[in-house]
Amino acid sequence: xxxxxxxxxxxxxxxxxxxxxxxxxxxxxxxxxxxxxxxxxxxxxxxxxxxxxxxxxxxxxxxxxxxxxxxxxxxxxxxxxxxxxxxxxxxxxxxxxxxxxxxxxxxxxxxxxxxxxxxxxxxxxxxxxxxxxxxxxxxxxxxxxxxxxxxxxxxxxxxxxxxxxxxxxxxxxxxxxxxxxxxxxxxxxxxxxxxxxxxxxxxxxxxxxxxxxxxxxxxxxxxxxxxxxxxxxxxxxxxxxxxxxxxxxxxxxxxxxxxxxxxxxxxxxxxxxxxxxxxxxxxxxxxxxxxxxxxxxxxxxxxxxxxxxxxxxxxxxxxxxxxxxxxxxxxxxxxxxxxxxxxxxxxxxxxxxxxxxxxxxxxxxxxxxxxxxxxxxxxxxxxxxxxxxxxxxxxxxxxxxxxxxxxxxxxxxxxxxxxxxxxxxxxxxxxxxxxxxxxxxxxxxxxxxxxxxxxx
Length: 456
What we know:
By secondary structure, the protein is an alpha+beta fold.
């Protein structure tokens, strides 16, 4: 009887307690549930924002030394006098404005006054130390710098888009370079530290091959890959990785191209080169098709299509010197390893017009070749003088054309934009007509990011 009484007393007390505090208990329960849910769902967002975890490691392919560090890395730590828009046109960088005089021989830049190096020093004209050959530099005022060129050179505004650094790689960007890991003459990695956020670091790690870069991501050495040419890994794809996000883009900085040796006995025939061009596929899964040597956003871009036409290709081939000799047509196509699949596609297309193709995979730019499948870096300015002018070492096709030489010379000596557009329109027209090369595509690039990585 006593035990029953105690139970009733406890029950009454508990009921009275709940009656008095039920609103507080209910509110605390709901609040705790909301906090737990928010913390659970936001863990992947909250943790990267904490000071101790502000770090990202980015992997790139390439072998670099301290003199040719990729410009996309350097731009994190500094800026140039100009910035180049995606269409190739210059806009203000650390220079507020500029004047061009003496028909392109004198460039006067007026600097912004509120730019500071990462060590706190104000950027002035005397602290800019571009080392240009045959260029006289004057600093008449604290924020005015003058470049006097030996010859007029219209791509100079693109040239001075290179990031500015003081000794010790001290720049004016969002980050400062804190360390450079070098092995022998090669750079293994570069670490940058934010000038604005404490403990925020960005490290670029360099790998010799695409496979090495992929492996580094899989084993967790890096948080992000830049510049992958495909997303295949072993028997799967990075798209299938649950903890990774894949972003696809087009690399308009490189153009995959068939280069013809115009001094080769067979390939010296323009009609044969044209026939081969007309027999090339109209699309490639590896990238965006291009028939001209410029990206579609560049201000000199013109539309000149060499769309596949087997009938016209066979007609041109029948008129070529090689066909008239009556021999079975066979050419050797040398290709870099990453373009082996493309080389086989092209060989199959050429077979359809009666040209047998022997494919040879090589590791570097060949000294002697008939046809070479490789790529070239597309400059930010439309000037491609070094690639196609007959007097240049980089003219690997041995192409010689007085008309093209004159256009290229005029193009880099003309400041007026409308005049340059006309020059480079003619350049594209006559270059395609002579066909020292067949332009194929701008390659796809893939960025793979670990989902838990800090976005810097």
